[in-house]
Write a structure and sequence with these properties.
Keywords: Signal. This protein is α+β, with helices and mostly antiparallel strands. The chain has one domain. It has 2 helices and 9 strands, in the order H-E-H-E-E-E-E-E-E-E-E.
């Protein structure tokens, strides 16, 4: 249920953005990092994932998590895994126009994702740190199946470049 909803939300956001921009609007800018160290530049920032990106990298599992800058923003990282698994979760991120497959360091499938996780891929390590055990109020009755939690995504490159940004970590079906 989570992935079809994520796809529908992503498609709706793309359609809404396309309709609401003036004809001569500038290209959207990359997300602004919360922190930058080690000589990182904006080329080391994650980019929004599309349905085509998801076709390029196999991300398997019955449940998943996604990191986005805001509640209605497109996902910058998507990870999936199986409950009760002893294999790493798989994920995907896009940097400098290149989709990069990720594997979690923890061999615990989905169970290792909800509170944050560290992922490794070619030339990059990505850590998701959940900043709170409490989800912000996101529904009228205060409950939700897949509430977003404040989180920080930290990217570390082989060159020592780092880039960090605050956003939301949402996990569920």
């Amino acid at each position: 249920m989570f992935w079809p909803r994520l796809t529908v939300v992503f498609a709706a956001a793309c359609g809404l953005a396309a309709c609401s921009q003036p004809q001569n609007a500038e290209e959207p800018t990359a997300p602004k990092p919360a922190e930058t160290a080690g000589g990182a530049d904006m080329a080391f920032s994650p980019e929004a994932l599309s349905a085509d990106d998801m076709k390029q990298v196999s991300v398997n599992g019955e449940l998943g998590c996604a990191f986005a800058l805001e509640k209605q923003s497109p996902a910058l990282l998507i990870a999936r895994g199986n409950v009760g698994s002893t294999t790493p979760a798989s994920g995907i991120i896009k940097i400098a126009g290149r989709t990069i497959p990720l594997k979690s360091r923890e061999p615990s499938g989905f169970d290792g994702l909800a509170d944050g996780a560290t992922f490794e891929g070619p030339a990059v390590t990505v850590a998701i740190e959940r900043l709170s055990k409490d989800s912000p109020a996101n529904t009228t009755n205060g409950s939700a199946e897949s509430p977003p939690y404040p989180a920080k995504m930290i990217l570390s490159g082989e060159s020592g470049a780092e880039n960090a940004m605050n956003g939301l970590w949402t996990c569920g079906p």
